[in-house]
Design brief:
The chain is an all-alpha fold and 512 residues long. It is 70% helix and 0% strand.
C-alpha cells in the first residue's frame, strides 16, 4: 500500500481492494433485494412465467460485453475508466462527451434513489410499527449518511457494503430455501425456461427491466488505482458481478413463481405487485422474515447509494486530474485517502435536486426516483455501447497479443445486443416512468443532449486549452506515475502492479 511522502499531496489508497471488495461495490450498486422485491413482480405481470429467462439473457449479453471490456482493462491504465477506453478507440471528442455522459449516468442513478430511500423507509415504518413518517427528512438524512460513508476510507466502505450485501442476498436465499424445501405451491417446474413461455408478447418489456437490473456492474474499472493487482482483480470482479447477478436474479424470480404456482403467480403479482415477495416469504418462512425483508430493503437502498456515490467521486477526481473539472475536485483527504471534495460536491448536487423536487410537491417515487433514474440508466447503457464500439478500433491500431475473439468478435456482438437493449428500454420508457409522452421525450432526450454538449466542450477545449485536451485520458508514462500528470493532481500511483505487458500506445490520429 503506497503512502505519500511529506512533499507530495495525498492520493487514493492503492493496493487496498480485493476481488471480493470490488464485487461488493458493484453488486451493491445494483441493489438485488430492491430489484427483486420492487421490480421483478412487474416483470412477471408483463412477461408471465418466462420472466426468469429475461434476466439470464441480459446477463449473457453483458457477459459477452465483459469479454472485450476486461481485455481492454489490461491495456488501458488511465483512471478515467469508461471515458478512457472510449477515448482510445473513438477519439478525444467522443471520450470527453462520454465523460459527461458518465457523470449524468452515475449521478442520475444515485440521486434519484434518495427518493426511493424516503419511500422505502416510510413503508417499512408503517408496516412494522404503524407509524407514518414523511419521506423528505429520511432522504436528507440519507444524503448526510452517504456523504460520510464516501468521506471515510475505501476499505471502510467495502466492509460496510459487504455486510449490507450479505443481509439482502441472505434474506432472498432464505426465501428461496423455504420454497424449495416445501416444493412450491404445486411442485417444482421448469416451465419458465421453455420457448413457449419465454417468447411471448411481453418478453421485450421483461428484457428492458432485466437490463436495468444490472446497472453499475461495469464500475469495477473505476477502482483500478485502489485495487490489488488490478490486471487480475478487475476482470475477476467484473465476471463475478455479472455472473452472480444474472444467475441470482433468474433463480430468485423462478423460486417466487414456484411459491405461487405457474398458473397463479401472474394473478397474484397483478393483484399485489409490491407485496408479492413479502407474501411468499411469510407463507414459506414466517412473518418475522417478512419484517426482516422490510428492513433489509432499506439497507439495500443505502448500499446502492453508497456504491454509486463512491463511483461518482472517483470520476470527479479523475476529471479534475484531467483539468476538465476544477482542481479542487482532485483533492484527496490526507487521512482517509478519499476524494472528499468531489464527495461534498456530489452531495450538494443531490441535496439541490431532492429539495427541488420536494419544493415542487413531486412524488418521491414516481417522479424523483423514476424521472431522475431513467436518463441515468439509459446514459450508462449508452456508455456500455460506446465502450463496446471502441474496443475493436483500439486493438486494430495497436500491437497486442490478444485473440480476435476478445478484441473483435465479442465486442461487436455485444455492441449489437446493447444497441437492441437500448432500443427496448427507450421503446418501453412509458412502462418505467408511467409519465406523459412529453415527460418521457424530455427524459430520453437528456442523454443525446448531454453527449452533444460534451462534443462541444471537447472542441472548445481543443481550441482554448490545447494542453488539457492533448493529455486527456493519457496513459501514465510508467507504472510509478499518476495516471494524469496534471499539476494540481493529488492522485497516487494508478496501480499496485503493472499489466503483464506494457500498455501499447495508439497512434496520434487515434487520440485526436
Amino acid at each position: 500500500m503506497s503512502s505519500p511522502t511529506s512533499d507530495e499531496p495525498p492520493g487514493l489508497r492503492t493496493g487496498t481492494l480485493t476481488t471480493a471488495d470490488i464485487s461488493f461495490f458493484v453488486v451493491s450498486a445494483a441493489a438485488p433485494l430492491t430489484v427483486m422485491a420492487g421490480v421483478a413482480p412487474i416483470a412477471i405481470v408483463l412477461g408471465g412465467i418466462g420472466a426468469p429467462a429475461g434476466y439470464l439473457l441480459a446477463g449473457i449479453t453483458l457477459a459477452i460485453f465483459a469479454v472485450g471490456f476486461t481485455t481492454m482493462s489490461r491495456h488501458v491504465r488511465s483512471a478515467g475508466a469508461f471515458y478512457a477506453y472510449i477515448t482510445r478507440g473513438l477519439g478525444k471528442p467522443v471520450g470527453i462527451a462520454a465523460a459527461l455522459l458518465a457523470m449524468l449516468g452515475y449521478n442520475g442513478m444515485e440521486i434519484g434513489v434518495h427518493g426511493l430511500l424516503g419511500t422505502a423507509t416510510a413503508d417499512t415504518a408503517h408496516s412494522l410499527w404503524g407509524v407514518d413518517i414523511p419521506w423528505l427528512p429520511v432522504s436528507l438524512a440519507g444524503l448526510l449518511l452517504i456523504w460520510y460513508g464516501g468521506f471515510r476510507s475505501i476499505d471502510f466502505g467495502a466492509k460496510v457494503l459487504g455486510v449490507l450485501l450479505l443481509a439482502e442476498t441472505g434474506i432472498l436465499v432464505l426465501l428461496a430455501g423455504g420454497v424449495l424445501l416445501e416444493g412450491g405451491a404445486n411442485g417444482l417446474s421448469l416451465a419458465s425456461f421453455t420457448p413457449g413461455n419465454v417468447l411471448v408478447p411481453g418478453s421485450a418489456a421483461v428484457l428492458a427491466f432485466a437490463f436495468t437490473a444490472f446497472t453499475g456492474f461495469e464500475s469495477t474499472v473505476i477502482y483500478r488505482r485502489e485495487a490489488r493487482d488490478p490486471a487480475r482483480t478487475i476482470p475477476r470482479a467484473t465476471y463475478i458481478a455479472v455472473s452472480f447477478l444474472g444467475l441470482f436474479y433468474a433463480f430468485v424470480v423462478w423460486t417466487v413463481i414456484q411459491a405461487f404456482g405457474d398458473d397463479k403467480v401472474v394473478e397474484a403479482a397483478a393483484g399485489d405487485t409490491g407485496g408479492l415477495f413479502f407474501a411468499a416469504i411469510t407463507t414459506y418462512v414466517g412473518g418475522w422474515a417478512a419484517d426482516l425483508m422490510h428492513v433489509f430493503i432499506v439497507t439495500s437502498v443505502l448500499a446502492s447509494l453508497l456504491a454509486f456515490h463512491n463511483a461518482i467521486n472517483r470520476y470527479g477526481l479523475a476529471l479534475a486530474e484531467e483539468g476538465v473539472l476544477p482542481p479542487a475536485f482532485g483533492k484527496v483527504h490526507p487521512r482517509h485517502r478519499s476524494p472528499y471534495v468531489a464527495g461534498v460536491a456530489q452531495t450538494a448536487l443531490g441535496l439541490a435536486v431532492v429539495l427541488g423536487f420536494a419544493a415542487a410537491g413531486a412524488d418521491p417515487y414516481t417522479q424523483l426516483l423514476l424521472w431522475v433514474n431513467t436518463p441515468g440508466g439509459i446514459g450508462l447503457m449508452a456508455l456500455q455501447l460506446l465502450a463496446a464500439l471502441a474496443i475493436p478500433f483500439y486493438f486494430r491500431r495497436v500491437r497486442h497479443d490478444e485473440g480476435v475473439l476478445r478484441t473483435v468478435v465479442a465486442p461487436v456482438v455485444a455492441a449489437v445486443l446493447l444497441a437492441g437493449a437500448i432500443a427496448l428500454v427507450v421503446s418501453k420508457v412509458d412502462v418505467f416512468t408511467g409519465a406523459s409522452t412529453t415527460v418521457n421525450t424530455v427524459l430520453v432526450s437528456l442523454v443525446p443532449a448531454v453527449f452533444l454538449l460534451g462534443l462541444l466542450l471537447a472542441y472548445r477545449l481543443r481550441r482554448t486549452r490545447p494542453e488539457t485536451y492533448a493529455r486527456f485520458a493519457a496513459e501514465p508514462s510508467d507504472p510509478g506515475e499518476p495516471s494524469c500528470p496534471h499539476p494540481t493532481s493529488s492522485s497516487s500511483t494508478p496501480a499496485s502492479a503493472t499489466p503483464s505487458s506494457a500498455a501499447p500506445r495508439p497512434s496520434p490520429s487515434v487520440a485526436d
